[in-house]
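Narrative progress, year one. The postdoctoral researcher (J.K.) led the effort to move from monomer predictions toward full complexes, under supervision of the PI. The following entry was the first complex the group processed end to end, covering 947 residues in total.
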Amino acid sequence: MDISQLVKNSPLYPILILESVLSNRVRSWMIKISGGLFVVLVVLAAFFSFSGLSSLAPKVWGLIFVSLAFYLFAKMTEFYFNSSYYFDNVALNRYRPGDIFTFTVGRILLGVQNDDVLEGFLLSKVGRRVIRRCGLSDRATNEFLNHRGPAVFYKLPLNSDGVLKLRDLVKFLFENDSAFAQWLSEAEINETELIGAVGWVVYEIEYGEYRKRWWSESNLAKLPGIAKDWGFGNTYTLDKYSWDLIFGLSYSSADYEYSTRSDEIAQIENILAKQKEANVFIVADSASERMDVVWHLVRQIRDGVAPPALEHKRPVLFNTAVFLAHFKDRSSLETELLKILNEAGKAGNIILVFDNFAGLLQGMTALGTDFVSLIYPALTSNSIQVIGLSSNDDFHHLLETNATLMTTFDRIFIRPLPEESIIHNLEQTVWQIEKKNRLFFTYPALLEIVRDANRYFTESDSGDKAVDLLVEIIPWAQSRSYKVISQTEVEEMVQTKTGIPIGKLQPAERENLMALEKNLHARVVGQDEAIVSVSNALRRARAGVRNAERPIGSFLFLGPTGVGKTETSKALAEVMFGQETKMVRLDMSEYQTSDAVAKLIGSFSSGKPGILADLVRESPYGVLLLDEFEKTNPDVLDIFLQILDEGFFSDKEGKRVSLRNLIIIATSNAGADLIWQMVKSGIKPQDKVDDLVNHIVEKGIFKPELLNRFDAVVIFHPLQFDELNQIALLMLNKLAKRLINQGVTLEINDIMVKAVAELGANEVFGARPMQRFIQDNIEQQVADAIIKGVVRSGSIVSFIASSNLNDKRPQLAVKKL
Amino acid sequence: MRIAVVIGHYFIWHYGRAIKDLTRIYRNLIAFTFNFFSVDILVRSYFAPWRRMGEEYPEHGVDPFDYFSTFTVNLIMRLVGIFMRTVAIVLGLVTTLVVILSYPVVLVLWLALPLIVVIIFFIGLGLFFK
């Protein structure tokens, strides 16, 4: 059976024809124009009859009747279209026995010419919408259709199991038309993204049609009635500090949201429907997630679908901050609170929602009030229900420890939303954003937002952070005059925000990565093997090969002091994250004692925050340098087992602290003696990494499982004379740069370089003392000369060998005053 | 030919399913009107004081004057409540009745609508070209 015959046999055929002859838009215009014309003509007729121009009146009346006939005709076709079958099919997903495809698919099939279904889909309105949501323009679609070669004909998957939906049709086309799949693949759209975009478009259509059905029972129930609260009391005092949530719902975007928390809502309703002690703590870290649950509950009450015990209840949000700010002394505060509770109890329909229950408890305690005792009678009565909102931290610290509260309140912990629900929430939020801001989001952009929010904004598990990121993109995009937000724009924004390069490699970044060794060598002298090892690991990470659930990179730098371990870390921060300050440093020798773990991750008993936890929360992107790693307590090393493996640890409150966006570098002098021995015996330590690792394990410095968790154990060998000379030159160049700012030119020569390398460096501390040597012997002489006035702005200075043969330090020579 | 299919189907809908839908919408509207004026709640709380206002009777000792004064205040509140509720209930019932009574009128109009549209159209043309 060909497609046109298939469409003719469908019960949807008449309304599909109507839609193709008089589309929704045309009908809507007909109604508006004929209705408007009717009103204008009636006014005109009235004017004519009063002004005495009665000769024109019959013509105007004629037009009035004609426009009325058109108006009624348009309305009838609209009613017919909507209620004959369209709403059942589209808004309610109800099908008739003879249905083999949905209305949306029917519309596509009706437009199909020569049985070319792909063309029919791509040229249909809904098809264009789907492809635009995939990030491809109408022009790109037309070009594809013109150049795709001969059309493919296939048998549609009808009559298999039920009704063919748009999702099934597009999936079928993707799987069976290789040119279509190839075209999308070249645009980096995979099947999941395509089907997701279809789902989004279909959801938008269905949701819009559902809301149009004002006469449905559920939509009529949303309209507020009168006299509902006449049987309940007034709450004048409470109203001063609170906000009626049912009233607020009409003015809030929360009414627009889709409920993804039906389990939690049902539990809360059951608790609140109890005869006594119908109180509940809603615990979640994100304030908006807590309120989201409350909004859903309010909506249920307003729409009349809550359990009978909650019918006609009035949930009010008590503003803790405003209430506490009103009172300076205890007695007036207590009196007012008792008045509020008394009023709420007498009113008989109040659900009191405390936005920050722990804050109220703390604030009252600070004023010397026993809040729990005051509120206890209300909590145990059957005339009032209380909802307390709290973060996890506050709940465990301040509320859970109070036995009275725990016996009078039930607890609901809001679980993190699954990814599909977060995407679903974003889809709805985007409609509002697009309307208000004239922006267009593609579906891959939405997925990227969810992915990036999870990967780069790890401070909480909340689904809210994806919405936050979405909202942040708006001003960012507007400031750059972007109209379409695709995956690339999201990546660009996240990169700007975090400093972490993500997304496709840009040419400049590609060059930087390819020249990583060279760039690192601009600051680090020698240590070729170490630099290559680190560079390779970072290139692997950037190429997307890395595991996203571990740190970007983790390295153990082994070697004697002063050979460039720290300098390499700084250079990495600069090269990878754009600035040296992106490196945070912890001296692990400060964490040797038994309380080291508590110091680093915080202590629940003392309530002190952890240094590592704070440091990582403040600087979640960059390089974390753990100096003298071997000196720390073994318990601390055990924590790093988890960090290196999974990229996070749990702080004192059990909150996850993520290190997945950091390069972790641990430096250690462990095995430095063996490295020295190897170098003296002419062995390259880099070739004997295994021997060195065995040596460290045998000595019990690090456990093998810890060493295995690093991406690479990198050996830094002692510096050779040539390398010391290069370092001396680098350091002197830095000094010269600083002097140029004073207007003094420092000419560097071999005498200075050699003196710094020979006299500054030593076997134990490597190149590290050279800086001190420069400071004491070069900088000091220049500074003295500047103070004496011998050297001033415009002077050129250099250093020569000392005239005193016993003194090898160079002496200042002023070349130009 | 295609249009003929639509016209045929339209009339089947107009005199079949549309009447069922109209009846269902009317049912929804009646329930909505009843609910909008909260008739059931008002009947259930018919004798309750207006917005639960009132005074509490003294707990200790019986001072006839205090007792009478409280009784009077509470009685007035109940009377106010009864009066307001009666007004709302009557208003609600009248509105519901109007909605119910409008159903046959609307139904007749609906049945005649295709004819009315044609007649209006031709009357209009007749007047215009007169």
